[in-house]
Amino acid sequence: MSGLSYRSRWIHRQVKGKKRLIDFACKKLGIKSFADLGGVWGVDGEYTFYAMDTYKIGKSFLVDITFTEKVMEKKKGYSGLNMISGNFGEAEVARQIGNVDAIILFDVLLHQVKPDWDAVLELYAARTKSFLIFNPQFIASDQTVRLLDLSEDEYFRNIPHKKNEEPYKTVLERMHEIHPRPQYKQQRIYRDIHDIWQWGIVDEELISRMKHLGFTMRYFKNWGKYNELTNFENHAFAFANNEP
């Protein structure tokens, strides 16, 4: 590890942290079914396939707006895996999933607007026994922040992207115009798309929200800074409901 670049070491921590969280849930919480929400982009369903390869998972769901050829090809070897194309923040997608032992939310809560990240948790709370959350958490405030409410310069100081990158460049130019993406069943403006960084979520508010929904934190680990961002750390959580 010492010979690897900073980015390589950071990615290694990301992968290790998510797999260790799955290990805990399957070994200690008895997970036998799950839904991996938004688990395709950038990782090609890696954590879905890891869980199914490593543990006896009878039923699983992989949900995302689009699926890569790599995922579609690999899916052929997993009879218990169900693919759902859609926005997991929509009630119809949650209905298709039904009830599962765990909801997996890796690096996605910070992107969720309308419904916001906390409403997504509420949407699935009655459909699962546990939540596995690995998310860049905001450490520069004691309250959750909608990042786009910051000044433009402050916004880009807090995310791992530049003003001239897409889709950020277009979002800035068309902030309050309707986005044309057909997958959005309800119209939304560019400012509210999930392709960009939206939230700086703080631990206290996440834990409080889960407690309100009837879930207790059973696991926590800080996996260090998100990339080179000063104000974000990768935090891993497992929450289980309070039913006997």
Gross morphology: globular
Radius of gyration: 18 Å
Number of strands: 9
Instruction: Give me the side-by-side strand order of the main sheet.
Output: 3-2-1-4-5-9-8
What's the CATH class label of the largest domain?
Alpha Beta
Largest sheet: 7 strands, mixed
Task: State the distance separating the first and last CA atoms.
Answer: 43 Å
User: What's the oligomerization state?
Assistant: single chain
Protein architecture, described:
- The protein has eight helices and nine strands.
- It is of the alpha/beta class.
- The chain folds into two domains: 6-145 and 197-241, 3-Layer(aba) Sandwich (Rossmann fold); 161-196, no CATH class.
- The strands form two sheets. The protein has a seven-stranded mixed sheet, with helices on both faces. It has a two-stranded antiparallel sheet with strand order 6-7.
- The longest helix has 23 residues, at 6-28.
- The relative contact order is 0.16.
